[in-house]
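# nightly structure sweep
# worker-07 picked up a monomer target from the shared queue
# config: single-sequence mode, recycle default, output format = structure tokens
# input follows
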Amino acid sequence: MAKTPPRLATLVLLPIWGVLTLNMFLPALPSMAQDFEVSYATISLSVSGYMYLTAVLMLVIGPISDAFGRRRTVLATAFVYFLASLGAVFATNFEVFLVFRLLQGVAASGFALSQAVIRDTTDHQEQAASRIAMVSMVMAVGPMIAPMIGGFLDNEFGWRSIFAFFSFLGFLVAVVCYFDMGETRSGHGLSMSDRMIGYRQLFGTPRFWGFAIAQAFALGMFFTFLAGMPLVGRDVYGLSPSHVGILLGLPPVGYFLGNFYTTRATRNMDVIAIMRRGRALGIIAISASLAFALWGASSPWLVFAPLILAGTSNGLTMAPSTAGAVSINPRLAGSAAGLMGALSTMTGASLASLTAWLLSMQPNAVTLVSVMLACSILSGIGVLILRITQRPALASA
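# output follows
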């Protein structure tokens, strides 16, 4: 097996894999609920339940890749994903569909392992942040277009066509990674006792919690939007699935711009300064969106347009927080990436469930945007922790 890092195509494809799996089918949620004859809150389990299982899998996949290698882990999970996607296509009831949908959570390996691979092949956290931001900038194209494609497929061919596309995606990931992805993990992995010591170090480091809180609630803000926008778009503004898909693509446009800025800002700014700018921008942008919603603006485009800047704020947060966390102990890069991903995804899943529950009782834009604003403020608290503990003395495991 080649001991060389993968090319950009693989580093981009791996996280896009997870992004598309989460985003593409969201405009079809109302259609799926009607087809399976379940409520919107019930069909939303395919979002929140997926994220909960993804969080658990990230805790497992990171250490597995540290012990057995990044490449073999990706190939195994891509095969499981391919089979799960086919199962979802032919599911005849919601319970069977949900089982296969949850199995698609193995796509979490793409997000966690792409970050670990970047850390494997860089020397310091600013360089890692720049490379993660560069990959994220390209990756952001996925959530820009995925909901629109999903809405089109649902309109033209029905929601099952989306999961047929997912099965092709799993096959593509396996083929590309088989031929392109060399192994980047050095050594033979850590013993379980060493790994537990490493986890204790991460949990006991305030700096890790600063990065984790900042990322978890920044991502939670985005998941809240993904969970609530389809219902608000349909019930409040009377939008079709394709128009909902366009609105779902607004924050990723800003995310692209934020990552573009991050790739350049890391040349003369530390990651905490970049994150601080990001969280301030997010709070301002979502406050503007909330002001329009409280004002009673009738156009969803006016209410949700400021969320482009909220996406930009996440572009200034996600890559620097990931790079900072996986740089705390480079020998545990896979485990740290998995742990960060698990905490972020668990937080996002909880917030998505809360949002779906709140909107099922009172579907309106004010409720949705208020939860998003709370998330952005809490993410800023994580950056404040980093500011306070800017120069800690970190021990190596």
